[in-house]
Amino acid sequence: MVLVSDGAVEELSGLLDPTLRVPLYTQLEDALRTRIDDGRLAAGAVLPPEPELAERLGVSRQTVNQALTNLARRGAVTRRRGVGTFVARPFVEQPLDGLYSFLRTLLAQGRLPATRLLGNRITVDSRASPLLTGGPDGLVYEISRLRLVDGEPFVVETVYLGVGCGEALPRERLTREVLYDLLRECCGVEVTHAEETLRPVTVEQPEASLLGLQVGEPVFLVERTGYAGSQPVELRRSVIRGDRYRFRVRLEGHTLGEAGPADRRAP
Question: CB 3.0–4.6 Å: which of 71, 98, 103, 158 could bond 76 by disulfide?
Answer without folding.
Answer: 71
